[in-house]
Amino acid sequence: MSLYHLLHAALVTLRISLPTVWDAARGQLTTEVCDARLDFWSRKLVERADMQISVFGAEHALAGRSYVVMSNHQSHYDIPVLYRALPLSMRMVAKRELFRIPLWSSAMHKAGFVELDRSNRERAIESLNRSRDVLAAGTSIWIAPEGTRSMSGELGPFKKGGFKLAAGIGAPILPVTIVGTREALPSRGRKVMNGARVRVTVHPAVETSGFSAEAVDPLVDRVRSAIASALG
């Protein structure tokens, strides 16, 4: 079953990636086209795993407003689940390794994905400016503040990079709690279990005005408490 899911995921990803690279190379890639392809991609992956998703608090994700979305991270399925649950145009902050392939890198940038390079100050500033442009265009950005998938399912320590980015831009943070994706595919798991029941809780947005990029500890605590409140 796992090989079946893996092949399906690879084919669906190729189906949206190849035309996206082609459109980007021709200068014909639009936000609307990317949104439609990501909607298709997430729907196919969730349907294949026969997931049942319940969403609470969706009214907190206001249409027409862009956010830095932050959630706990338990599974590779968190990302397609978020695309199904949130009524937002959304992209991800991704590790710099994904931007090393020339044509792929250009397509990701043009699609609105943001490269994250913590080791280089100049690139970090570029990421900040790029994030500001993406948010100003009405597209939200997803960041996993834990930095990686939780091995135990418990909420891990939060890295401050995403909070500094949000405070530096002045963008509101939308905390989201995901429960159940680990039942479908845990961190480092190799077998996908069909029929997982997933609960997504969207919390009220946390405004970042009044916080500086140098002093985000209270912001981290507030967002972490919101996400943790719905993990039980």
Can you walk me through this structure?
- With 232 residues, the chain is α/β, with parallel strands linked by helices.
- It has one domain: 3-Layer(aba) Sandwich (Glycerol-3-phosphate (1)-acyltransferase).
- It contains 8 helices and 7 strands.
- A 7-stranded mixed beta sheet has the order 1-7-6-2-5-3-4, sandwiched between helices.
- Helix 4 links the parallel strand 3 (90-95) and strand 4.
- The radius of gyration is 17 Å and the shape is globular.
CATH homology superfamily name:
Glycerol-3-phosphate (1)-acyltransferase
Strand content: 15-25%
Number of strands: 7
Mean pLDDT: 87
Percent helix range: 40-55%
Shape: globular
The major beta sheet can be summarized as:
7 strands, mixed
What is the CA–CA distance across the termini? 30 Å
CATH architecture: 3-Layer(aba) Sandwich
- H-E order: HHEEHEHEHEHEHEH
> Ranges with pLDDT <50 over ≥5 residues?
none
Structural class: alpha/beta
Strand order of the largest sheet: 1-7-6-2-5-3-4
Tell me the CATH topology.
Answer: Glycerol-3-phosphate (1)-acyltransferase
Briefly, what CATH class? Alpha Beta
Number of domains: 1
Rounded to an integer, what's the Rg over CA atoms?
Answer: 17 Å
Helix segment tally: 8
List the helices and strands and how they pair.
Elements: H1 2-25, H2 31-48, E1 52-56, E2 68-71, H3 78-85, E3 90-95, H4 102-111, E4 114-116, H5 121-136, E5 140-143, H6 161-169, E6 173-179, H7 181-184, E7 197-202, H8 217-228
Parallel strand pairs: 1-7, 2-5, 2-6, 3-4, 3-5
Antiparallel strand pairs: 6-7
Helix pairs in contact: 1-2, 1-4, 2-3
